[in-house]
């Protein structure tokens, strides 16, 4: 699947002020029954977001909202950057979690730490997860709460988040993943450029571990 | 040949033997020996292949079964017995994809169908030394056989189908060493819950965890699976146990295990699958096995766990404000007051099953506690869901089904069931469940449901008592 190129943009920030947000919370299990990659946005954080219990096929625009839930507050509508706490995305490997975040409109997630599988899945779907020190994240939470409309400019090329006063916050990103995001590259296509090497490895490996290549009984 | 290389960990060895290429920044291509597929995380991957006009690289490296959506009540009628049309379409889609691409599948109605992480080892589809992936975070289970196994997302499922490789960076090495001897009534589940309680739900993030020490050497292969299964609950994608004679004995004679000359050759290679003397780990955590007690979780993260004779913690005594807030939110969700003894928490539902604890040894252990006793009147539903059709057959051959049924349990058909409630088995809002599964997240077993993670023995004891209780005295009575 080829992705949109990740360019420089301004992102309204929404705060998700709890640690260990798991992928069951991001997209509850009943929505995993879809055989598509799209359409998960209306059910992002479903149990926290709506008063009733959501089911696939419901008209989500008619469901009662939990007014206190952060993403239901008018000031965070249109947010593209989710500011989160430690170990964001823990639990199940469901890629439906980044699909739902992306479909909702989030392109960037900033947290002190992420769960491994979620972190990896995010890049594959055009979401940039950024790890920042806990005190920087804490400062950003304060800034978001203090200032309605708080936005950061996301500059992946130069690896920085630019604050409203123009001060940049530098972040690290794996060079390969950065390259893929900036160019909207498809991992499979890239890997298949090494087809000869994979085949050579396989030939040698077949000699070393022939029991792994025996035809299984059906 | 003189060996001048530094001592390696088991993970180092598995990584090195599967590395095809590595860039200067550490991004590597890793060869994948086996991929397990199920209905929830594969449809979009097959669709991606079709859209790009790609074929599986090595079709026989893939094996499929359905587990998350399957009903546990009646399997008569196969797929058509799934009442929820959305679930049914997902299972049918797997059947269709497996047929279209020529992938071996154990569909509904096949006695080998079951939870993918139970089926793999049971069939000898998982072998020591393999790299194995599945679109499911509990793939770490297979590390119990000395395989490098971890969960992947759907994009990676497609990537492995198309290329037989994964783009990865090497993880760090962690050793969780538990020495000593477990007390009777203390199980592999209690060990891993105690480990998670110790290092936290993100303690293993970025690491491959090897479980070493006397406790794991003494443990059965199925017990090791329970431990490795929950490595992800400590944040680690990979859990590993070194290969020993028990591993080899376990694999021998399984349907898809090698035989004859290939078997001998394989065993020789497998015997090297352990960390070398003096291998360096980036992090070492040590626990005293003899001090571990039966565990019960009280909150909404697997790290929120304690010994059965403890009490629900007080958020005001937490070490920092983020932790205090997490505890407060958890207790509110769980409907628990700080200071409540765990043994005073009543249970409404009992779930014995899941890829963590649904193997034959788990069912035997629970049955031993249940035998000659009755499920308490206050318990609304107690159910046993075997991990696979073959586990179910074996249990029935041993008469375990009779023990559970006579005590008042329901005896169900295999699947993931109430571990994540994608099928019809749901924990109602506000109800407390003693569950042998792996996650106590909000809504995991059903919207508003309150999960307490325990061992099969502890779940059985809670079923009988109607509240959480230390299983150890019950086990002494049972064996007396």
Structural notes for this entry:
The complex is a heterodimer of chains A (218) and B (480). Chain A is an alpha/beta fold. Helices cover 31% and strands 14% of the residues of chain A. Chain A is built from eight helices and seven strands. Chain A has helices spanning 23-26, 46-49, 96-104, 116-123, 134-146, 175-183, 187-192, 195-208; strands at residues 9-16, 81-84, 108-111, 128-131, 151-155, 160-162, 168-170. In chain A, a hairpin with a 4-residue loop joins strand 5 (151-155) and strand 6. Chain B has helices at residues 10-18, 43-52, 85-101, 116-123, 154-163, 188-199, 214-218, 221-229, 245-251, 260-270, 321-334, 360-370, 389-397, 400-407, 456-465, 471-479; strands at residues 19-22, 28-31, 34-37, 62-65, 104-106, 131-134, 148-151, 165-168, 172-179, 207-212, 238-240, 283-288, 295-297, 305-307, 349-352, 381-384, 410-411, 432-435, 450-453. The termini of chain B are far apart. The model of chain B has no long low-confidence stretch (mean pLDDT 96). In chain B, the strands form five sheets. Chain B has a five-stranded parallel sheet, with helices on both faces. A five-stranded parallel sheet of chain B has the order 17-16-15-18-19. A four-stranded parallel sheet of chain B has the order 11-10-9-12. In chain B, a hairpin with a 7-residue loop joins strand 13 and strand 14 (305-307). Chain B has 16 helices and 19 strands. By secondary structure, chain B is an alpha/beta fold. At the A-B interface, helix 4, helix 7 and helix 8 of A face helix 2, helix 3, helix 5, helix 10 and helix 11 of B.
Helix content of chain A: 25-40%
Number of distinct beta strands of chain A = 7
Strand content of chain A: 5-15%
Unreliable spans of chain A are none
Portion in strands of chain B: 15-25%
| Spatial sequence of strands, sheet with the most strands of chain B | 5-4-3-6-7
Largest interface: A-B, 63 and 83 residues
Q: Outline the low-pLDDT stretches of chain B.
A: none
**What is the alpha-carbon Rg of chain A in Å?**
20 Å
| Portion of residues within helices of chain B | 25-40%
If helices are DSSP runs of H or I spanning 4 or more residues, what is the number of helices of chain A?
8
Largest sheet of chain A: 7 strands, mixed
Report the span from N to C terminus of chain B. Answer: 57 Å
Average pLDDT of chain B:
96
Oligomeric assembly = heterodimer
């Amino acid at each position: 699947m080829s992705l949109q190129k990740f360019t420089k943009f301004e992102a309204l920030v929404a705060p998700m002020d709890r640690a260990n947000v798991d992928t069951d919370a991001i997209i509850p299990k009943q929505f995993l029954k879809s055989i598509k990659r799209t359409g998960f946005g209306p059910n992002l954080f479903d149990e926290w977001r709506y008063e009733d219990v959501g089911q696939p096929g419901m008209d989500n625009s008619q469901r009662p909202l939990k007014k206190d839930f952060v993403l239901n507050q008018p000031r965070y509508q249109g947010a593209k950057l989710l500011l989160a706490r430690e170990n964001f995305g823990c639990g199940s490997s469901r890629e439906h979690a980044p699909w739902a975040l992306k479909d909702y409109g989030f392109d960037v997630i900033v947290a002190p730490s992420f769960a491994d599988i979620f972190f990896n899945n995010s890049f594959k779907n055009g979401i940039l997860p950024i790890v920042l020190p806990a005190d920087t994240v804490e400062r950003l939470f304060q800034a978001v709460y203090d200032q309605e409309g708080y936005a950061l400019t996301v500059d992946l090329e130069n690896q920085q988040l630019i604050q409203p006063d123009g001060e940049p916050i530098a972040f690290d990103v794996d060079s390969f993943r950065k390259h893929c995001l900036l160019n909207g590259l498809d991992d499979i296509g890239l890997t298949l450029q090494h087809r000869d090497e994979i085949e050579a490895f396989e030939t040698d490996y077949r000699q070393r571990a022939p029991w792994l290549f025996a035809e299984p009984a059906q | 040949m003189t060996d001048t290389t530094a001592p390696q960990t088991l993970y180092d060895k598995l990584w090195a033997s599967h590395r095809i290429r590595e860039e200067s920044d550490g991004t590597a291509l890793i060869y994948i020996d086996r991929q397990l597929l199920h209905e929830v995380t594969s449809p979009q991957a097959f669709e991606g292949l079709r859209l790009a006009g790609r074929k599986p690289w090595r079709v026989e490296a893939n094996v499929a079964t359905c587990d998350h959506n399957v009903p546990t009540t009646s399997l008569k009628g196969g797929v058509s017995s799934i009442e929820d049309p959305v679930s049914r379409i997902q299972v049918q889609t797997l059947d269709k994809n497996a047929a279209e691409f020529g992938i071996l599948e154990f569909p509904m109605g096949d006695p080998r169908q079951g939870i993918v992480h139970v089926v793999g080892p049971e069939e000898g589809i998982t072998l020591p030394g393999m790299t194995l992936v599945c679109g499911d975070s509990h793939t770490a289970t297979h590390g119990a056989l000395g395989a490098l196994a971890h969960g992947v997302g759907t994009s990676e499922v497609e990537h492995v189908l198309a290329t037989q490789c994964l783009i990865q960076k090497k993880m760090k090495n962690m050793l969780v060493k538990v020495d000593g001897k477990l007390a009777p009534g203390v199980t592999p589940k209690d060990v891993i819950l105690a480990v998670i309680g110790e290092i936290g739900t993100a303690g293993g993030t970025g690491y491959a965890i090897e479980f070493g020490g006397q406790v794991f050497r003494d443990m059965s292969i199925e017990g090791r699976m329970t431990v490795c299964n929950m490595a992800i609950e400590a944040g680690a994608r990979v859990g590993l146990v070194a290969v020993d004679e028990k591993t080899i004995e376990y694999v021998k004679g399984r349907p898809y295990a090698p035989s004859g000359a290939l078997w001998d050759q394989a065993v020789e290679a497998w015997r090297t699958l352990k960390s070398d003397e003096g291998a360096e780990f980036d992090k070492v955590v040590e626990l005293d096995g003899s001090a571990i007690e039966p565990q019960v979780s009280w909150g909404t993260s697997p790290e929120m766990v304690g010994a059965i004779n403890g009490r629900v913690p007080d958020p005001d005594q937490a070490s920092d404000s983020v932790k205090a807030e997490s505890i407060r939110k958890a207790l509110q969700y769980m409907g628990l007051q700080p200071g409540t003894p765990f043994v005073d928490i009543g249970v409404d539902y009992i779930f014995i099953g899941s890829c963590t604890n649904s193997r034959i040894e788990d069912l035997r252990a629970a049955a031993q506690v249940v035998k000659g006793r009755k499920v308490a009147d206050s318990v609304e539903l107690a159910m046993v869901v075997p991990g696979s059709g073959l586990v179910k057959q074996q249990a029935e051959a041993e008469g375990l089904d009779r023990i559970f049924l006579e005590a008042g349990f329901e005896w169900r058909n295999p699947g993931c069931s109430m571990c994540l409630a994608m099928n019809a088995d749901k924990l109602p809002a506000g109800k407390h469940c003693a569950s042998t599964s792996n996650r106590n997240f909000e809504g995991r077993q059903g919207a508003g449901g309150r999960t307490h993670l325990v061992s099969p023995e502890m779940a059985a004891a809670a079923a009988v008592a109607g509240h959480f209780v230390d299983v150890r005295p019950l086990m002494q009575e049972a064996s007396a």
